[in-house]
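Hello again,

I reread your note about wanting to compare the complex against the isolated chains. To keep things tidy I'm splitting this into two emails, and this first one only covers the full assembly. Below are the input lines as submitted, including protein chains and any nucleic acid or small-molecule components. They are followed by the predicted structure of everything together. The single-chain runs will come separately.
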Amino acid sequence: MYDLLSGLSVIEASSFVASPSAGLYCAQMGAEVIRVDQIGGGPDFRRWPVTGNNDSLYWENLNRAKKSVALDLARPEGRELLQALVRATGQVITNFPAKGFMAHDVLAQGRPDLVTVRVMGWADGSPALDYMVNNAVGYPMMTGAGPEPVNHVLPAWDLLSGAYAAFALLAAMRRRVETGAGSEVRVPLSDVAIGTVANLGGIAEVLYERENRPRLGNAVYGLFGRDFVTADGVRTMIVVVTPRQWANLVEALGLTQAIAAVEAERGVSFAKDDGLRFTHRDALFPLFDQAVGARKHADLAAALDAGGVVHSAYRTMLDAANDRTLVADNPIFGTAENPSGFSYPAAGAFATVPQLERQAPCPAPRNGQHSEEVLADRLSLPAGEIARFIDAGIVGVA
Amino acid sequence: MYDLLSGLSVIEASSFVASPSAGLYCAQMGAEVIRVDQIGGGPDFRRWPVTGNNDSLYWENLNRAKKSVALDLARPEGRELLQALVRATGQVITNFPAKGFMAHDVLAQGRPDLVTVRVMGWADGSPALDYMVNNAVGYPMMTGAGPEPVNHVLPAWDLLSGAYAAFALLAAMRRRVETGAGSEVRVPLSDVAIGTVANLGGIAEVLYERENRPRLGNAVYGLFGRDFVTADGVRTMIVVVTPRQWANLVEALGLTQAIAAVEAERGVSFAKDDGLRFTHRDALFPLFDQAVGARKHADLAAALDAGGVVHSAYRTMLDAANDRTLVADNPIFGTAENPSGFSYPAAGAFATVPQLERQAPCPAPRNGQHSEEVLADRLSLPAGEIARFIDAGIVGVA
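Full-complex prediction:
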């Protein structure tokens, strides 16, 4: 938690990963993020992983440091309260449909400076999940050794869309400061995915080559990099991106003469050219397989570290969770009283601001925990009217 | 291109994916992003994919709409010019080391309101690439069917760090407006990765279960989702996240009775519970394998679309690049005069702002294309002094 965004309030009406993560990033930077959900929880409220009591460990981490307002969004009164909260606040992050009661034009009635950030599936407004757009842009057909497609487990498009949505919110707010004008910023997963393919040169590559990149397994395209197995059975990734790293790697593995022989035979120099190291990987990889395979991991790691060569052994998520440097001793982690009752390291903002003191991570709210407070503060509703909404099942409280 | 960030100028001293993508997102939203590189190009200037002339299709896409200043950063005069540009501009995105001539404290001398956003590898400042932090947090050991680890091809951590860095820049600038104070915001890939594991519930999950999630291949954890193959050999992903999608999927495939039989046998109801559909996937998947395998893809797709069930066939990146809806007819794409001379669809901002007119994507600069203009405008250097720098090889021009 930092206070970079203190003073900013945002309504978040959303579910799943992308839109909630945008709200999370804002909340971890000190914004007041008011998540509005269906009473009893939205469609992501029980999403796995869950505890034995069916409390979602996913939900309580993606919604840390937010407030929760619970409404019956199936009824007009609940929808009107959400609309009123958006208008009273002035900025909203949502993945609700672009048409209907959460349409920007509807929300902006009486609030022309409203900023709406809308995470979408397909750009035409039809639903899509991370998996759908990932298949559509081709990455599963490039991942793994083939021939079958492999979906990556990380919801990368959701996450990228969420971070981009947080950026887009602040960008649209900056324009509002300059011009006074509100706007809707739509962030479709499908455009984030195909736009990223383009940004990384992928569209240009396949149209230039007129064919797809070959499946490379764990080898890295366009430079020297792959996984290797040490004498004691540790599989580790080694990747070279600078001439110095290459020189130091070759020397550390005692491959100077063998590499020189390949260079002489092929009439090339690997010293300064990532591409050549990739093109001639058929000759290089066997040398490195043998050299890495002759060393114990600890010895290899020490030699590579000394030469500034980046490497990283594969490990499991449980190993990662128990890594002291990465988690227990990492200042981004702290503890919080979680709704599930289960205690574990909780993350704050990814970023570190050396000039500021980092505050401890906050827990996620219980569904409706802040309904009364927010309706009173934001809409100036009298306590009696809020009580009437609660009795009528329009407003839920924790 | 939109003008949400017009009036903002940012120095970008960076390379590879994460830091340049942060600058790209700002440039595509109308900021003036001045990328400062070594004369002749930084370490990423020839990165693959490249054309037959060794022009990087990667570089010219990740650096669209930016200006380029080329300096000899190995010499004190070049470094001083970069420092002066940072001080004159007031905000910088960089992945240069936290210590040295691009340290925040050094840059902030005479410019106490400076905002520095620094993308890093490991949080302690030692170098790491996307592949390193990915291995460290455990995703390759979860991706694919196993037992070997599978690295995803998408540089997801780079991309997420880049988008988050763009968000962090605007957040730190917002605080500066409120308080007048500058700050450095550090975004280490390693903290983005382990923080994301935490945000998605992964840290909690493995510590609660005291074991790792099983390898699931292309099946989705915690809900109903996997790839299936149609009668005509099309492999497609189907994922269910709402009760309505489940009901419509079961009906569309004529599985109502078969599912009811499983429910009766197992004593469960799949109607409203994602988790049960996952837990009992051993019974469900064979039914769907058979039902999908009996249908042609076109028929299946029509039936699923009618029921609002999301699905997506696997395809290659070349197929994606040639998809009219996704690329040629997609308003985020346009054409630009690329440094490589090769013409292809170029992406603008992922986001769409219905209230604003989208401007065409801009090309990437040539190395040093804007050196003279920027040094004159930003540092008020007289033409003669710039010429002296050029003659001395301190400043490069295109």
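For quick reference: The longest helix of chain B spans residues 156-179.

B.
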